[in-house]
Every structure is written in C-alpha cells, then in structure tokens.
Design goal:
mainly beta, six-stranded antiparallel beta sheet, 43% strand
Length: 179
C-alpha cells in the first residue's frame, strides 16, 4: 500500500507490526529521503516523544528488550548507516501469535522503517562493519521497568544470521530470562 510518494507500507506476519519503505531520491550529488512524517504517526496511532540512536560494531546483538507496564514502548526503527538483522517477538499473552518471532533486514540501502508496537520484545544484530540504528519511542525509559528475553531462548529458536560465537552481548543481555 502506497501512503504517498514517500512511503510504501509492506505487510508483515504480525498484526500491528508495520514495515515502511522510504523513497530515496538519488542523483550525482548523493541522495535525499524523508525518514519520517506525521502520516506514519497517524497510521500507527502513535505520538512519538523521543528519538534514540545506537552505534554498534559488527556482531553486536542488542536485545531482546522491552519495557514493562506502565512504561511499555512502541518503536519506529530505522538504520541510517550499515545493516542489521532486526527481530521482534510477540510477548502479548492473549495474542494468537504469542511467542512467535519475525526477522527483518534493515539497512541504510533498503530504506525500511519498522514499526514495533507495545507488547513486542525487540532486538537487532549488526551484520555490517558498523551500524547506526535510530528509533523513535512513544514513552520514556524507566530503568526499574526494563526487561528482556534471552536471544538464544530454545523455545523461540530464533534464526540469527551469525553464529553465537561471533556475537557480542552485554552482560545484561547474556543474563536475560527465557520467555
């Protein structure tokens, strides 16, 4: 579904998870793209209140993270430099897709924006030498409500694009509980 001449909506396997392809305009000087406008907020029914940026090196896996109620967060994720494997996991107990995951390749070349609604754990694995991940959120971070799921939870059986021995994780992420 084309929203306007700048964004195209691509369907995903989950209700409420949305993938937007952004139009990039290129010429001999370089390129230009509109990475966000209020049409995305209107379609997702989300008012984003904060922009975050993460710089990571090859093999870094960040996640799978989420905030507990009442500080749950929806995210609009994009990669402004590099390539990542982005993974979302449905953690809504009443959902028909509870415990299922989906993987997306996000890169500065493919121009995708991934909308991750509340009720999903989120993480990414850097596949390029370096990557810059930008994401908008609709709620402020609260360290007392920070939570997550182990990246290698056997029940989830996520197919990461690198072997575990090539992944770099924080101590926090290594010690997250299973779903």
């Amino acid at each position: 579904m084309k929203l306007n001449d700048k964004f195209k909506l691509i369907s995903t396997d989950f209700n409420d998870v949305m993938l937007f392809e952004t139009t990039s305009y290129k010429d001999d000087r370089g390129s230009f793209k509109e990475s966000f406008n209020n049409e995305i907020s209107e379609l997702t029914n989300i008012d984003f209140i904060q922009d975050n940026e993460s710089y990571s090196k090859y093999g870094v896996l960040r996640g799978l993270h989420f905030q507990k109620s009442p500080c749950e967060q929806s995210k609009l994720v994009r990669v402004s430099y590099g390539v990542v494997q982005d993974v979302v996991v449905d953690i809504r107990p009443s959902s028909s897709t509870y415990g299922q995951w989906k993987s997306f390749e996000l890169s500065s070349d493919n121009n995708y924006n991934l909308f991750v609604p509340r009720g999903f754990a989120h993480g990414f694995l850097v596949l390029s030498k370096e990557a810059v991940v930008n994401y908008k959120v609709d709620n402020y971070y609260d360290s007392t409500l920070d939570s997550g799921i182990r990246y290698d939870d056997e029940r989830l059986d996520i197919k990461w694009n690198l072997p575990s021995e090539d992944m770099i994780l924080s101590d926090k992420d290594k010690n997250l509980p299973n779903l």
